[in-house]
Amino acid sequence: MAVSSVGRNWWVAAPAAVLWIAVPLSYEIGTPIPVSFMLFFASVVLAAGLAGHPVGLVSGVLCASSALYLHLRGIGPPPLIGTPVSTAIGMTLFIGTGYLLGRIRSDRDRYEAELLSIQGDLKQSLDEQLEDTQAALRDLQVSEARLEQAARVAKLGYFVFDFRRGIVEYCSDRHAAIFGMTPESFIAKVTGLQGDMSIIHPDDRDRLRAAYAELETGKDVVIDYRFFREDGEMGFIREYVSPEAGPDGRICRGVGSSIDMTAEKQTEQHLRQAQKMNAVGQLTAGVAHDFNNLLAVILGNAELLAEDETTAEGRHAVGEIIRATERGSSLTRSLLSFAQKSRLSPELVDANEVLRDSAVMFRRILFDNIGLESDLVSDIGLIKLDRNLLETALLNLVLNARDAMPEGGEIHLATGLVEIERDAPLAEGPQLPPGRYVTISVADNGCGIPGDSLSRVTEPFFTTKNRAEGSGLGLSMVQGFVQQSKGGLSIRSANGDGATITLYFPVAEEAIAADRAEIPAATEKSRPSLKALMVEDDPAVRQVLNAQLTRMNFDVTQAANSEEALRILTGPGQFDVVILDNIMPGRLMGVELAREIRAIDASIGIILQTGDTSVMMSGEDAVDVWLRKPVKRAELAEAIDRVIDATQDWSKGRKGPRQWTAS
Fold first, then answer.
1. What's the rounded Cα separation, in Å, for the pair 220 and 241?
2. 3-state DSSP call for residue 299?
3. Whole-number Å distance between alpha carbons of 344 and 53
């Protein structure tokens, strides 16, 4: 290094030293060496320029002393020996040049050494900072990897939004995936808060703008909104966004995390739908119960009139009343089936036969400008279901098809047989397990169902008709019946292109053990006078039931609720049969009262009348005979005979059947 030139470069003073020795020596031996001025000057410059001021000063002194010697001897170059002044100038020039030029070289070497030292320190510092930076970068990469892993586990996305430019600066894979995009496509798609925001649901765009405007005031924001994925499906997202200020103190960015809320929102919607269906079911069951009581009063009084009526015209009129109550009973069963509070009365049914028989009724309710065609496939097998409810379901579908064609059209009824090899989801219905299914379809070429309504048509009270024309319960009841029958329902439609509704029912593989026995219309056993306790809260039903039982030779005691019934049973006297209503005011319902009665006297026969046959499973241990309201007198008489016969067998130790359900 040049810094050590003072210690290592004394040799550059050799020319001056040689001249200092050689000049006087050559004079003493008689052969003086001619030396020029420039030779002396060059030796000084060489020493000072290469070795710095100590060596340069020494070389200058040596050359100056040589010049003085030559001046004193009168020899040498004329510039040095002309006059004392010229000799003094030359000596000063040699010494000054050696010192000044040497000082310049020494200062240069010192500055260079200092610069090299600074450079070394700087390099060391930079190396240390680089090492620290690399270590920090490695830690950052580890942290980012952990953050990314945590985000994947938590299913969180994150993003950075630039307010000033209105663009997304950064978007994680997860955040973009929520929208069904890649980060690059998402960044390119986002148009900013003032753009068209095409991927955001129109109803949520202003709310999203307001939330981000609040973010610009320095507040954290949490917002849920809807969006459209690339495939057109709607999703739900929740964003947590914090503001970030720039160097000028103004909010310039929003740093946010996001989570896909689609599954949670769908679960909430399903829960609300289930709660709504439960509430509607409870309401429907209550309405059906009250309606059944009205039908029971009408049917009972009509049957009493039928016994007293002597004219053919009168008997025909009473018969029409009875048949009307039977149709009303079928309607309440449909309502209870919708509420899934009705136990079906399944039987083996030929779908083709049902459609052929129903077609006659369908033609009566269709307008003249609507045609009805059938395409029935033979040998499709039998299905096991409640025929009355199937006819009611088909009637609902045909009425909907008729109302969809005010200008006229065609209704097409069809049956078929399909094989499902694996679990298959159907629109508006559950997944169907593998197996063979009979299909019954009702198609029309009417106005169709709008796309935004298609997923809601089976909701209770939802209708595309005028409220004065439709209740919104038709398809709901059809769906309830189909699901209770272990089947499925499929709806295909497009706005303006008609609709096809297909019902799927599993093929019945087993043969029916025994057809339901027809209850004789008016033949009753002659029996001795027996005692009956009737528990019914509706006064009108009590009155007509009391009249019927009295004509059956029963001594009837009436109770309006469970508390009154228990007081009567724990008092004097004994009853042969107890006839209960299931739903009534008080502490106990019918099934619970039946258990209390069993605890008091296990030999009493118990008959329970109800429209809500879903309670049958819970009361099998307490009730002998179940009757579905409204009850015909012949059915009631048959039930009483059965329960009394079974009770007598039971009391004698012969365990006869005590469970029987009339249809």
1. 6
2. helix
3. 122
Q: What is the mean pLDDT of residues 24-30?
A: 76
How far, in Å, CA of 532 to CA of 557, rounded? 6
As given in the structure block, the two tokens for residue 148 are: 């990314």
Query: Would you say 507 and 435 are in contact if contact means Cβ atoms under 8 Å apart?
Result: yes
For the record, the structure tokens of 125 come out as: 């510092």
Q: What does the alpha-carbon distance between residue 39 and residue 19 come to, in Å, rounded to a whole number?
A: 9
Most confident of 16-30, 453-467, 468-482, 552-566: 552-566
Give the pLDDT confidence of 316-334 residue by residue, as tens digits: 777 778 777 776 776 666 6
The tokens describing 316, both together, are 């025909």
SS3 assignment, position 629: coil
The closest alpha carbon to 296, from 584, 631, 613, belongs to 631
Q: Is the dihedral of CA 279, 282, 284, 286 positive or negative?
A: negative
Encode 398-426: b = buried (16+ Cβ within 10 Å), e = exposed.
bebbbbbbeeebebbbbbbeeebeeebeb
Q: What is each CA distance from 230 to 124, 193, 198, 433, 556, in whole angstroms? A: 54, 20, 11, 32, 73
What is the rounded CA–CA span in Å between residue 338 and residue 284? 8
Residue 573's region, left for phi above 0, alpha for psi from -120 to 50, else beta, is left
Torsion angle in degrees (nearest 10) through CA of 136, 138, 143, 147: 140
- Please answer whether residues 168 and 181 qualify as being in contact, where contact means their C-beta atoms are separated by less than 8 angstroms: no
Closest by CA to 63, choosing from 101, 34, 33, 37, is 37
Where do runs of H (alpha helix) occur along 82-195?
Answer: 84-154, 173-178, 183-189
Instruction: Map tokens 């260079």 to a residue.
Output: 112
By C-alpha distance, which of 135, 141, 228 is closest to 181?
Answer: 228
Report how far residue 624's alpha carbon sits from residue 4's, in angstroms, rounded to the nearest whole number: 123
Nearest C-alpha neighbor of 441 from the set 382, 397, 472: 397
Sheet holding 499-506, edge to edge: 370-375, 409-420, 435-444, 499-506, 488-493
Query: Which has more pLDDT, 98 or 344?
Result: 98
* Cα–Cα distance for residue pair 643/554, rounded to 1 Å: 14
- The secondary structure of 47-63 as a DSSP string is HHHHH-HHHHHHHHHHH
Tokens of 638: 């048959």
Take residue 456 and report the two structure tokens written for it: 């809601």
pLDDT, tens digit, 9 for 90 and up, residues 54-71: 887 888 888 888 777 777
